[in-house]
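tmp note - DDRGK domain-containing protein 1
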Amino acid sequence: MDQQAQALYLAAGLLVVVAALAMLVFITLRTKRRADEPEPPPAVGRQQAGAAGAARGGRGRGVGRLQAGVRRRRAAAAAAAAAVQAQPPSDAGSSDGDNDEEAGVDAAGGRRAHAREARRDGREAERAARSARDAKREAYDERRQAKDAEREAREAAEEAAAAEREAARQAADDAEAAKWMGQISLDEAGDAGADAAANGPGMLQAFVNYIVESKTVALEDLAAEFGLRPQEAIERVRALEAEGRLTGVMDDRGKFIYISREEMAAVAEFITRRGRVAIAELAAQSAQLIDLNLRIAPAPAAGGSERQLLLDDLAGDAPAVAVEG
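out:
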């Protein structure tokens, strides 16, 4: 709209300038025509003077009439000559008038032409501005679509990479679990009986004694020994640790190392006495303080409670120290 208004203002200014120029030309031609018109001939002046003298009276009526006739003839001839002489200027004036009219017509046509040209220029400017805006909008839309496509592709790639990492991690976890836990197939009919036997007091104590006597036992072998799945054997060992009936550590190779409370107390005392201990030194000292040899657990006392069925190695309240095997 601003460009259209400017175009209209420009057209109006051009029209005013053209009108002023046309008026100036018209005034100039008018002045020139008046300057070119001839003065009245002297004969006309003499005729007027003779007429005035006759009016004032003459010397005689006859002479006066004769002179008056002569003067009239001379005046008529002078008037005819003056008319003939004045005819060309009259034609020039008519030509000048025609030129003035033609100039006025040309000026009006020029104003209309300028107005049409100004309107055409305004429309072209508006179309150019609209085209520029459309091109700018299209370029912006293209850039935005490109950015959206790039972001979506990046997000899809990240999601795919995350899915691959998760699948690889899950596969590694499954492989590691299968590696050290193994797969034990049991008949469905014997599962219930095996669970009942494993949950009985005698079987539970036998489970504890087997670990205590073995000192280092593979959980897969432990599960096979008592007819359990590897995961069930792991859960059973952790439950006994939580109850305080077993103490030890479970390494990443699927083995449980039984450590008595006395052995844990000895390791804790060594660490307390030395203050700061290197890992290598602690490992060497632990090998001396912890007995990893297979031994047979003593029989439990008759009539004792389930907690008293533990071996003498399970007694005591020494603090637990985690030792990696």
